Amino acid sequence: MQTKFKRHQLVRILKRPDPEYIEYVEEGDPNFKEMPIKEGMLGRINILLPNFQYHVAIFDPENKTKIIAYAPFEEDDLEEVKEEQNL
Fold first, then answer.
1. Average pLDDT, stretch 31-48?
2. What's the pTM value of the predicted model, to 2 decimals?
3. If one looks up domain 10-86 in CATH, what number appears?
């Protein structure tokens, strides 16, 4: 099977994920404040799911090394980002 993205590849989100499937990293923290996941945010491919969606680790816009959430995306909802452009 040929896929557009590879594991650990940096991507930009083109479409908001379904809020039902967003997994926030710090949900158990009492000071947790849910941050909306929007178009244009950066992430990194985590794994390819059995339904051929990509499980993406989404970065905090302020700190591009901190993962704030995970969410599934279709291939068409993501675009490749060259690492040296944004990190």
1. 90
2. 0.86
3. 2.30.30
